[in-house]
Amino acid sequence: MKTSPKTLIALLALAGANAFAQTPGTNTPRVDQREAHQQARIAQGAASGSLTAQETQRLEKEQVRIDNAETRAKADGTVTAKERRRLHAMQDGASRDIRRKKHNERTTGQ
Asked: CA-to-CA distance for 4 and 1, rounded, in angstroms?
């Protein structure tokens, strides 16, 4: 399965929007860096055929949930240690999910 130009544009737009949405006191550079890396892993898996369309969609939705949690954490102007731990735990789970989906027996048949 090839990654369509629309998908790549959407991924880049999401990463760009996230970078500009930060306000002082709510910087989460490690969270943002991990999110970008995970997006790249998902895009690579979709491009190589190791992720099916359904797997890709589910992993993308998981990334959106993490992004929404990050937005909620930043809403009051401060990201607490507890909120950071929760975001990192969510990203740990997402990373495991990406690995599992990329290395299971399902492929797009390329």
From this structure: 9
